[in-house]
């Protein structure tokens, strides 16, 4: 069994492989990571904003499967593969932008419309009463996938939900 002890390994895997592939080919993925790292300098960005290694690019093109909640000309909404709540959904542009700061203002209205349309569908389907809208921008803010996406997290009265993606970071800060 290959042992990989590198801080960026898990992030690299998240960017390159969907969850079901990660489970099926763990050893092969580790081998590929080691080869990839040995070819480039330690500080190079191997997480890929390039289309051929980007999971969300592949999802947007339909090259890997996803459960689509909504689609229009420039956006799709997909169920999160590792949901924190029932109906946890990601709204992504079909074109790759890293964070909200890289996303053209001209897509702003359409982004908002896609978020609204998706939320309305989800609220109706899951009989929710509201939702949290979360954008993680950059690694320090908890962004694991370098492809701008809005998290829609449905809320119901008394659901007791705590947002791990935010509270987790708070916990780490409190430990220092
Ligand atoms: P971030 O931490 O970047 O804001 O959130 C990335 C989200 O993408 C996570 O909630 C994670 O579960 C989700 N995710 C990662 N890989 C995949 C995938 O292959 N398919 C889908 N549908 N979601 C994914």
Please explain how this structure is put together.
The chain has 176 residues and is α+β, with helices and mostly antiparallel strands. It folds into 2 domains: 1-47, no CATH class; 55-175, 2-Layer Sandwich (HIT family, subunit A), CATH 3.30.428.10. It is built from 6 helices and 5 strands. It has helices spanning 9-16, 19-24, 26-39, 55-60, 108-126, 164-175, and strands spanning 68-71, 75-79, 89-93, 130-134, 150-155. A 5-stranded antiparallel beta sheet has the order 1-2-3-5-4, covered by helices on one side. Strand 1 and strand 2 form a beta hairpin. The longest helix has 19 residues, at 108-126. It starts with 8 loop residues before the first helix and ends with a helix. Bound molecules: guanosine-5'-monophosphate (5GP).
Offer a concise description of the structure.
With 176 residues, this protein is of the alpha+beta class. The chain folds into 2 domains: 1-47, no CATH class; 55-175, 2-Layer Sandwich (HIT family, subunit A), CATH 3.30.428.10. It has helices at 9-16, 19-24, 26-39, 55-60, 108-126, 164-175; strands at residues 68-71, 75-79, 89-93, 130-134, 150-155.
Distance between the termini: 34 Å
Give the neighbour order of strands across the main sheet: 1-2-3-5-4
Number of domains: 2
> Tell me, what is the CATH class of the largest domain?
Alpha Beta
Rg from alpha-carbon coordinates: 17 Å
Strand content: 5-15%
What fold name goes in the CATH topology slot of the largest domain?
A: HIT family, subunit A
Order of helix and strand elements from N to C terminus: HHHHEEEHEEH
User: How large is the count of helical segments?
Assistant: 6
What is the CATH homologous superfamily assignment of the largest domain?
Answer: HIT-like
Bound molecules: guanosine-5'-monophosphate
Largest beta-sheet details: 5 strands, antiparallel
